Fold:
Amino acid sequence: MDTSFIETIKAYVLDLLKYIGPKLLYALISIIIGVIVIRLLMRLLKATLRKSRVELSLKTFVESLSIFVLYGLLFTLVGSLLGVKATSFLAIFGAAGIAVGLALQGSLANFAGGVLILVFKPFKVGDLIEVSTNLGHVIKIDILYTRIETFDGRIITMPNGNVANSDVDNRTMNPIRRIDLSLKFPLTESLDTLRPILVKAMEQNPNIESTPAPDVWLDQIGESELQITARSWVESPLYWPTYWEQLEAVKKALDQNNIEMHVPRRIVYQGGEHKPSVKNDN
Structure:
């Protein structure tokens, strides 16, 4: 092999290392220092947000966005140390922005949805919401996704774009909620007898609001039953525990007063003698 060719390659590599080597070293040092600085800044930001009165949902969004911006600045700094001009960076970011925008249209929609959620605040961390049949407490709002925890311990991650464009049922936005117990009784039952029994059973629960007071109303007269609704008001966070307690209290009160709820029945004629026999539907 020609020794002059090998010497030429060596000289080229040495010249390249002399030119690029210091830049690579500076870039590596900048990356290490930059990562350390970003971590320190994020700790400071988290501590500042923790002491402030900013809502938890906004805190998580600001933290996620800050990490994205800081690492973007670090990437720009490292590129400039390697000799990439600012105009080149703008061209790269512009082209990358178009490519990413086309490839990640859903993610951009999720980002915009996250901004809308934080601006208009249809819900916040800790609220009980229902979105597209998903019911649970909001545990985190990120740049792109909202996470809720259901009553049975499942974690559901929903894209912010879908959430922002869906009907959101916020069940803790109002301080109090109404509990409706739907009950059915035979047509022969007296409302004057039922009403005080049901109201007394509901009033015994310490979580029930005195204003509005519990009440009982006849909703509908069916073919074979009276459809009655027993209503009471409670603080929103206590809704479900109180709902179950009210159901149990009403059932016990009815049993103590020997009042039976409506049981659907059918009359079946057997044979040609038309002797009716009564059967329960259930």
About this structure: Residues 3-51 form the longest helix (49 residues). Helices lie at 3-51, 56-81, 86-103, 105-120, 160-164, 191-203, 239-256.
